[in-house]
């Protein structure tokens, strides 16, 4: 029997763990899940940086727990998973958002640059998933949302390590979807396009570059964090129960490869 449309997106009674939730897209997605009814476990490397996020979640009348997490440290991943489970039980929803970037020409990327990005964005995503998925497998249900990027499917100069990591996240998503599907767990990749956040604001101050970017986006603007609200709730909810292994691009259409039409002769 089908469910009413509003109940399909209701996350009441569920707990979501969102990594990298102190600011930007991670904070916004945590708030979106809370507005849909979920309680939250939120992480950041410096747990004190989560104070504003926790306050905002509690203002929505949701319970929120802040946990420290360094995705480059295996012991930290295990400790964060244990703390989350101790506080709220095994999470129903995992949003692997935490990540980093190094913007450099390929010939200037160092060994340490490469390791920093790949260890955080790809290896960290896998082992955080492993730690949380054990409880999901035991329960027989779960939603895993890996945050990719437009670089999961497109290449951009100056972003070689980041693009490699996000492409890897897309492939990892498909592999884990195949493996965890029999346990009632969906695994999908939410891939934002060019979003303006505090972390990358310096790029958007370049008016010439911004005009070039906007000209390549069919909706004619960069994304803002709130543009992800519907997508993350959808992938966390019963509305997406038969969707797994997919990459959902929220990119204003830039991956169509379109550019502005030439003027008529």
Q: What can you see in these coordinates?
A:
The chain is of the alpha/beta class and 265 residues long. The protein has a single domain, classed as Rossmann fold (3-Layer(aba) Sandwich). 42% of the residues lie in helices and 14% in strands. The protein has nine helices and seven strands.
What topology emerges from the helices and strands here?
Layout: H1 5-8, E1 15-18, H2 24-35, E2 39-44, H3 51-59, E3 64-68, H4 74-88, E4 93-96, H5 111-139, E5 142-147, H6 160-180, E6 185-192, H7 201-204, H8 207-215, H9 229-236, E7 247-250
Parallel strand pairs: 1-2, 1-4, 2-3, 4-5, 5-6, 6-7
Give a quick rundown of the structure.
The chain is α/β, with parallel strands linked by helices.
